[in-house]
Amino acid sequence: MRYRVGLQALAGVGFALVLGGCATTPPFAPTLTQQAQTAPAPQAVSRNARAPATPVAWGGTIVKIDNEAHATLITVLAYPLNDALRPKLHESTLGRFIVREAGFLEPLIYAPGRELTVIGHVSAFKPGEIGQQPYNYPVVTAQAMHLWPIEPIRTAPRFQFGIGIGIGSRF
């Protein structure tokens, strides 16, 4: 009888470990995400030229990256964020901002088109242009940054026709 109870307990622990392995960890510490706010949008902050008092959580796609002597500046096209703070690229853009990260970041890793989310304070404004239009970029000094993995392009069909497991034709 004891053997059976021990086996059930072991099976329960194993099941919990398997389920725990399926869980994803959030990219940011909960204390950071609780302090940060996703509003106001970078475009609104740019127009007002006033930095919010609290940290911001902004994200989008990288437009360009500039490595300077002691820091890296990443220009980002902002998008709204989902609950996991990942940019929602299918929605309208929210302006642009610059991320300032101390030290060197590899431009081939932080390449244009990659998705990036940052939590930090708006520490300055940098005048610039988008095309021929003047734009006042909010500069966020990063407390935490997350470069999202590239989503693989699916070339295989999403359904399969057949009998059993792994036997059949793909369409």
Automatic annotation (TrEMBL):
GO cellular-component term (any): outer membrane
InterPro entries: OMP_Slp
PANTHER family membership: OUTER MEMBRANE PROTEIN SLP
Record protein name field: Outer membrane lipoprotein Slp
